[in-house]
């Protein structure tokens, strides 16, 4: 299900209409829009809670954006820009989809998001608390956003429980299935910080001396992924297999269309939607 609702959310990062909506309220430059839009449900926060909640960004990178972005656009203005850009992007991407299918998908995805337990999940909770939108595409995007942030909160908890810090997590993934060239600069870590994290992974037996993932580490990280899945499973149990399958059918063409605006290699690690 993640491969079906994550692309719906991700248009806010990659579609030109989303970027234009942020620029229209004064958030010029990609990272101003990113940090203001994603952090806006928290209110006019300083950098510290965002460093903690977003998890994998270097503190210096977050501190360059926050709290200074609130001088350019308030959280309320950032939220309006975020939703406006996302809806415009989805309208462009889903024009060929029947309106009743989009509305049905929005209804089911909202029901799934409504079944979430937000205890201990800050980003999921603040997105769930936003006012309900009126139009189906806006409701679809907001439900997808709540689900993905809730899932992300659970993933961070699993990583913390496994004893992995942010840069160690990225350094590990870049030895397995993602690109260091893609992730290191986009998350703001220095070469020295990256090398130190790699050294810690070697010390704990997650990487060999020549930087190759160990089988022990693969098993341990699989446990992290399984814990993430289990913590995010409640909505689909509430919907039940028939309606969850129906939602997946409805989301599949929307997800495929949204996926076209994401780079093939993207920092989210998002694959193509699967059957």
From TrEMBL:
Q: Which InterPro entries match?
A: HTH_67 (IPR054058)
Q: Name one Pfam family in it.
A: HTH_67
Record's protein name = SalK
Source species: Micromonospora echinofusca
């Amino acid at each position: 299900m993640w491969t079906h609702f994550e692309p719906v959310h991700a248009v806010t990062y990659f579609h030109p209409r989303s970027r234009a909506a942020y620029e229209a309220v004064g958030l010029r430059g990609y990272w101003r829009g990113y940090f203001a839009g994603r952090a806006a449900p928290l209110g006019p926060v300083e950098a510290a809670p965002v460093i903690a909640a977003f998890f994998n960004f270097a503190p210096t990178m977050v501190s360059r954006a926050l709290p200074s972005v609130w001088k350019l656009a308030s959280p309320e203005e950032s939220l309006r820009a975020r939703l406006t850009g996302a809806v415009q992007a989805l309208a462009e991407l889903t024009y060929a989809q029947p309106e009743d299918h989009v509305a049905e998908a929005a209804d089911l995805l909202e029901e799934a998001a409504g079944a979430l337990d937000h205890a201990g999940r800050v980003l999921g909770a603040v997105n769930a608390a936003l006012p309900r939108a009126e139009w189906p595409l806006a409701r679809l995007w907001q439900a997808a956003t709540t689900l993905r942030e809730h899932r992300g909160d659970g993933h961070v908890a699993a990583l913390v429980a496994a004893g992995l810090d942010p840069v160690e997590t990225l350094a590990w993934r870049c030895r397995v299935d993602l690109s260091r060239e893609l992730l290191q600069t986009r998350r703001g870590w220095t070469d020295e910080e990256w090398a130190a994290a790699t050294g810690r992974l070697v010390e704990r037996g997650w990487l060999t001396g020549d930087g190759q993932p160990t089988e022990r580490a693969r098993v341990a990280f699989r446990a992290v992924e399984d814990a993430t899945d289990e913590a995010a499973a409640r909505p689909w149990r509430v919907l039940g297999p028939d309606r969850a399958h129906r939602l997946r059918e409805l989301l599949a063409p929307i997800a495929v269309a949204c996926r076209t605006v994401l780079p093939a290699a993207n920092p989210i690690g998002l694959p193509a939607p699967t059957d």
